[in-house]
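DM from R.C. (forwarded with permission)

"hey, sorry to bug you on a friday — could you get me a structure for this? deadline for the figure draft is monday and I only need the backbone to look sensible"
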Amino acid sequence: MPFDIESKFVIAVASSALFDLTESDRVFREHGEEVYREYQREHENEILTPGVAYPLIKRLLSINTSQDQIVEVILLSRNDPDTGLRVLKSIEKYGLTISRAVFVAGSNLFSPYLNLDSTPLTPIQ
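My reply, with the result:
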């Protein structure tokens, strides 16, 4: 059964905006994907610090009550499942009521929705 979002304020946020993944990104850029994944597995239980979007998301979620869930936050991430586990543990630790997340392991999140072929779009006259 589909989830009805008709009467909800739905916002998507990147994991790197919700949490500070600066150190993880440094490991990835300097040592490559395999070392990065190993790093995430080794630090799986270390809670991530809040990122730039954290205060906004926390405030938006505070609008919700036990009777009325007006705000729905969806986490979007190009990270892999190893990072995803660490992010989800951090979400739980901070008590954020985010129950939907997508981790696409490097795939483009938006390509199905954008015109990415070589045919240019015709400008509106």
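R.C.: lifesaver. DSSP finds five helices and three strands in the chain.
me: no worries. The first helix runs from residue 15 to 18.
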